[in-house]
Amino acid sequence: MTIDPPLLDLADVRVIADETCILDLPALTIGAGENAAILGANGSGKSTLVKLIARQFYPHYGAQVRIFGQESWNVFDLRKLLGIVSGAMQLDFDADPPLETLDCVVSGFFASRGLWAHQHYTQAMIDAARAALEEVGASHLIGRSMASLSTGEARRVLIARALAHRPRALLLDEPCAGLDPASRHHFLAMLRDVARGGTTLLLITHHIEEILPEIDRIVMLRGGRLHRDGAKAELLTGEALTGLFGLPMTVRARGEWFDAAIEA
Ligand SMILES: Nc1ncnc2c1ncn2[C@@H]1O[C@H](COP(=O)(O)OP(=O)(O)OP(=O)(O)O)[C@@H](O)[C@H]1O
């Protein structure tokens, strides 16, 4: 039996920006197929961790960052194995030269922002991009430019871009931001299918109610450091969230889902 290498295997990681250490992780491993949520307050280092995985940030000398068991990657090859959805990415697409939505989704096959003359896309890629747009309810946006879309519309197109090339793992940094309740409901249902299909999910969120039943590990970051790491049953509790966010919180189970509130 072969065992897939972990999505993430970190040791002695320190990320320095503006002469300040913004992420300090002596050790963290997330296995292949292990769906995890990263929780933490604003500025706790969650997006920095995603950027470290996607090779947008590099750690300080001496760190080990193995993604899918490999330390050295061609960035484009790595990003083809990952589907990434984040608010920062959405801003990048807004700022770029005009890009049509279907082209945006097809560009996910090349891990590029936009399509360029040297990239040879196939009819199969276009069909997969159309199917992904259909899946997220965004087919009607084909023909529009990314910059002309509302926040929620653009978010759906980016989700389609992340899914179209059937990545090994999805990195989702606040993926539901800007989605209305119905879109969020459909998106979370779709993510459950993706997780059941074997794609590893790494979900970054402040919203406990978005933590899918398929996620069973919680990694808590505080001040750029690992605060707690464990099973959902152990960490989706009032005691653990109170410790993380510094305010008295209660957690309620709703079937397989949870929600949290600040105690009155
Ligand atoms: N390029 C950068 N230069 C300097 N500081 C940075 C840079 N990127 C991030 N930081 C700082 O690192 C810290 C962690 O940022 P990060 O974006 O990872 O937080 P986060 O947990 O994702 O927060 P949020 O929930 O607000 O999105 C913050 O204090 C942020 O100001």
UniProtKB/TrEMBL annotation:
Signal peptide: none annotated. It is an enzyme of class 3 (hydrolase). Residues 8-248 form the ABC transporter domain. Pfam families: ABC_tran. GO terms for biological process: zinc ion transport. It comes from the Bacteria. Its EC number is 3.6.3.34. InterPro entries: AAA+_ATPase, ABC_transporter-like_ATP-bd, Metal_Ion_Import_ABC, P-loop_NTPase. PROSITE patterns: ABC_TRANSPORTER_2. GO terms for molecular function: ATP binding; ATP hydrolysis activity. The keyword Thylakoid does not apply. Keywords: ATP-binding, Hydrolase, Ion transport, Nucleotide-binding, Transport, Zinc, Zinc transport. The keyword Nucleotide-binding applies. Belongs to the ABC transporter superfamily. This is ABC-type molybdenum transport system, ATPase component/photorepair protein PhrA. It comes from Sphingopyxis granuli.
